Amino acid sequence: MKNKLYLLLISVLFFASCSQEYTISGNSEESMYDGKMLYLRGASSLNNFAAIDSCQIQHGAFHFYGDTDSVMLVGLYMGGDRLMPVVLEQGNLSIEVSHLKTKLSGSVLNDKLNKLLVKRSKILA
After folding, report:
1. Gap between the Cα atoms of 49 and 43, Å rounded
2. Do residues 66 and 76 make contact, with C-beta atoms less than 8 angstroms apart?
3. For residue 10, what pLDDT is reported?
4. CB count, 10 Å around CB of 22?
5. How far apart are CA 42 and CA 76, in angstroms?
6. Nearest one of 61, 15, 17 to 36, comparing CA atoms
């Protein structure tokens, strides 16, 4: 009986250690965004995007948090409008959303993605 208890305890610790948590903190200086819902959506099948997480902008701030078992590219949406891509991975990410630009930081992959998006916007301007 004692061995079974130890085995159960070790199993719980093992599976808990496999979990990777993400936290995305963001803000928006646009007062028109207060009360709007934001969604993190990832591809579930070809041309079909499923909601992974959601939150509401309150007083210019929003917060996503949860568990992920792998790194994946998701989209940040406001309603049906895609605002920007985000690399969803373990760690603390930061997003700034405004009418003119968005900024993403907090991890190596997201910093590189943000640099790419800035270069793209300069080319398209």
Report:
1. 4
2. no
3. 54
4. 23
5. 9
6. 61
Q: How far apart are CA 95 and CA 75, in angstroms?
A: 12
Give the integer Cα–Cα distance in Å for 41 and 50. Answer: 5
**Which DSSP string corresponds to 34-81?**
TT-EEEEEEEEETTEEEEEEEEE-BTTEEEEEEEESS-EEEEEEETTE
Query: Is the confidence at residue 76, as pLDDT, over 70?
Result: yes
Residue labelled with tokens 């949860």: 66
Specify the 3-state DSSP secondary structure of 107: coil
Out of 24-28, 83-87, 98-102, 107-111, which region has the weakest mean confidence (pLDDT)?
98-102
Confidence check: pLDDT of 52 > 70: yes
- Taking the whole predicted model, whether its pTM rises above 0.85 is answered as no
With contact defined as beta carbons under 8 Å apart, do 124 and 118 qualify? no
